[in-house]
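Quick one: Pterin binding enzyme from Novipirellula aureliae, structure tokens please.
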Amino acid sequence: MQRRVTPEPSHHYHFVTGKLAEGLLRETVSILAKKHCFDFSIGVMPITVAALMTPKWLARHLNPPPQTTHIIVPGYLTSGTPELDQSVKIPVIYGPKDCRELANVFGEEVDKVDLCDYDIEIIAEINHVPRMSLADFHRRATQLQESGADIIDIGCDPTIRCAAIGDYVKLLVDAGLRVSIDTFDAWEANEAARHGACLVLSVNSKNCHEAVDWGVEVVVIPDHPNDKKSFEKNIDFLSKAKVPCRLDPILEPIGIGLTNSLLRYAETRRDYPEFETMMGIGNLTELTEVDSAGVNFLLLGVCQELGIRSVLTTEVINWARSSVRECDRIRRLVYHSVKNHVPPKNLTGDVVMLRDASLPTYTEEAIDALANSIKDNNYRILAENGFIHLLAANVQLSGTDPMEIFADLLTKPPSDNVNREHAFYLGFEMAKAMIALQLGKRYNQDQSLDWGLLTAPEMSHRLKKNHPRKPQN
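--- reply ---
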């Protein structure tokens, strides 16, 4: 399925649309044609909404001019494309669902890159594991692994020793998961290692002598974040004892010493390039009252540039509840960015969650033209230029408050067109439109708002209820 084309002066593009989108499509294509120097024509199909077209139906109604070199159809035609390709002897380009995004077809945006590669390991901590049942613990660990965690970290209770720690470790190891343990209790660490844990967090002067006997990799930390001498002493002791180590000079929160701790990571990478390094990024995400994605992005960018190849995070506080999923996506972005010496922009919108990257808009003239072209009583909702617009035959309402718009609608004939189903649907959609305006997001009627990697697909309701199942002439 072809979605991009390299425009040439000899090309003639035939754009296919429905009656409602003709004005906006013509306006959009005119700008692109002038910019990219190609000829075009607009094929307005005998159907109101382009989303209702099917490949078989379209093949019967297409009538491109003889000079056409490419046909560009809406992105709604995602099934039955081989049938359309075979029946039309001209190359078919499958564009976006929204004609305002047609620039992408002509290469004005960067192609999505392969984001499979990464080299930062995610260690996801489950806090206070001894307070959980084995079943709840296993369920939570599986969720974190599915979100992208490479190692499940068992957070112990510092106030009481967990006699059953081996059972928690063995449960995950038997399930094929890699496990670490977060404890300063030497007995717990030894039991965890004995049952298959591959990493112990953390080791300083208080427990480094016992670490010699565990037979697993450990995370070395200073006795105090600013105590560089103890850090060096702990590293030296464990190194001479041939205990495999990764180093963590400790990330401190804003207000306590964030900048100095970042400098310590840079110094540690400079002074100990032969050792792996870990950053406990949860120290910042959990203690910074802001959505976690941006914080995770900056910290993983620092890690990628410094060569810190493992991070420890957790999802205790609500604003960090998707941190593991965020880190899994972000580590791929920063890997690509650093490897190719490019900013992490125009790669994917997965972690642009609160606001959208761009907002193509209708002009007032286009909205008026759309309103004047509607001949049926089905409602169209737009969220444009700070206003919610409600359109139908002989109805053109706009405002910022859905309640007021609906009250105005009830004064318009025919009043029997607003039944309970319509009222619920309009309230649902206008609430989404209001959220989109408040946050700076695109609103497309009958589609989910785009929350990046948190987006939940939404079933179409308007097209199924208010229109016939098959396109009609």
